[in-house]
Amino acid sequence: MSKVKEKTAEEFLPVEEMSEEEKAKMVEQEQRLENLEFWNSVEKTDPTYTKHVAVGRGFTAIDAHYQIREATAKWGILGSGWGVETEPISDAASVDPSLVGVRVTIWYLDDSGNRCYGVPIIATSKKHFGQNADSDAFKKATTDGITKGLSYFGFNADVFLGKFDDNKYLQEVTEHFKEPEVVDTVDLSESREVLREEFANN
User: What three-state secondary structure class fits 15?
Assistant: First the structure.
């Protein structure tokens, strides 16, 4: 991954010495960073909650409950700070009759309490699992819709951008989510000696 060299304060021109073009570019860059602030805060995926699915060319699947946990961490309790609206689709013109279809729309509350909606996702799942009807078909379609819907806000974007195909990135993100080692620094040797003495005297 390429790294951008950070400039020191001395390398920046004072605003009054910048050309109009340079000022416009600086404002554009600041706006871009502001717009991507939320995206950048949720784009990294903990590899612990992913698995490789060997279908076709293969892809990385993300644990849906991990995604829901991450959305809850950002927006609040499901149904309060954010939520999912679902609508079954039975129109044969939109969904193949062999599939269960559902329109999934994710919403969240902004700082003013306004409900903001994401892009409606039409997700599908096969009605039958082998020769038997799949009773989980609607749930599978809904889960797929939630995964895709959250990705449009930036959740787990590194997976959808194909970064998990890069071993170097995978190592970096694994290190990022690595649990810090807890080291017991308490010296209990004196306490043990006291207990031994008490035990010996009884």
Answer: helix
